[in-house]
Design brief:
Order of helices and strands: HEHHHEHHEHEHEHHEE
Strand content: 5-15%
CATH architecture: 3-Layer(aba) Sandwich
Number of strands: 7
GO molecular function: potassium channel activity
Main location: membrane
Mean pLDDT: 68
Strand order of the largest sheet: 3-2-1-4-5-7-6
Distance between the termini: 50 Å
Biased composition (Polar residues): 52-66
CATH class: Alpha Beta
Protein name: Calcium-activated potassium channel subunit alpha-1
CATH superfamily: NAD(P)-binding Rossmann-like Domain
Shape: globular
Radius of gyration: 18 Å
Largest sheet: 7 strands, mixed
Membrane topology: Multi-pass membrane protein
Length: 250
């Protein structure tokens, strides 16, 4: 037990079912944003301006930066009903070389996070490990998986391609271990939506899915691209906010 704790933080030992697993290679700031959104009292906070009365042309031309929490809040209220009045546990599964792991542990120890720290398990491991998925994360009981990338401003263009590719493969592995779970995959580059349809969705559904509004929803898999900002042809967008998040519409 001591060695397992030293290597990866032990196991998730929550009671019941329906927890959320956050994985990928996220930055500490993105992790904080997601955790604060999940544990927000109404699960539906957003700093996005109301666009319900805007024309499609106006919405299409808008280029207002949105936070990751705001983007996530579009998905979470739809899933939150599955938990009822009970706040779900969250398992954070990070790579062994993750720079976010010590930072997020330190953040959870702060007094102002004491209300959520008991609901969060921070583990080191991989979605490609059957031991990590089935025994440590209890993947077969998870309600949802969030697969997150690092901040775009932290990596090169080639790094963004690598991170997206790895997250698509992570998505495939999660489906194998937790086929019943809802999966949200966040990509750095919009053109990599094609990887999700090729690797995850049935081929007969690709054309229909491509006509959707940027959210692929089939077999409980969602692909939310443009959430962390990107530029066409793999080039980084200039003047990104400090969080590295930007709403990029093609």
């Amino acid at each position: 037990i001591y060695m397992m704790n030293k290597r990866g933080g032990g196991n998730y030992r929550g009671i019941g079912s329906g927890h959320i697993v956050i994985t990928g290679n996220p930055s500490a700031e993105n992790l904080k944003a997601v955790l604060l959104e999940i544990f927000h009292p109404d699960h539906c906070v957003s700093d996005e301006p109301d666009k319900s009365n805007q024309s499609p042309e106006t919405r299409q031309s808008s280029n207002t930066p949105l936070s990751l929490a705001s983007r996530l809040s579009r998905w979470f209220p739809k899933a939150a009903g599955d938990w009822g009045d009970r706040t779900p546990d969250v398992v954070v599964l990070l790579p062994h070389n993750s720079r976010a792991e010590p930072a997020i542990r330190s953040w959870l120890k702060e007094k102002r996070q004491q209300d959520i720290s008991s609901k969060v398990w921070v583990l080191k491991g991989s979605v490609f490990s059957a031991l990590d998925m089935q025994q440590r994360c209890v993947a077969h009981r998870a309600k949802a998986f969030l697969i997150l990338p690092p901040e775009l401003m932290e990596i090169s263009a080639s790094g963004a391609i690598r991170e997206d590719t790895e997250n698509v493969v992570r998505c495939v592995s999660v489906r194998r271990h937790a086929w019943q779970s809802h999966i949200v995959v966040m990509l750095l580059l919009s053109e990599h939506k094609e990887l999700i349809t090729a690797a995850v969705l049935p081929s007969e559904r690709i054309d229909a899915v491509r006509k959707a509004t940027g959210v692929y929803n089939d077999s409980r898999v969602e692909c939310v691209s443009d959430m962390l900002g990107c530029s066409p042809a793999g080039h980084h967008r200039e003047e990104l906010p400090n969080t590295g998040l930007h709403d990029h519409r093609v």
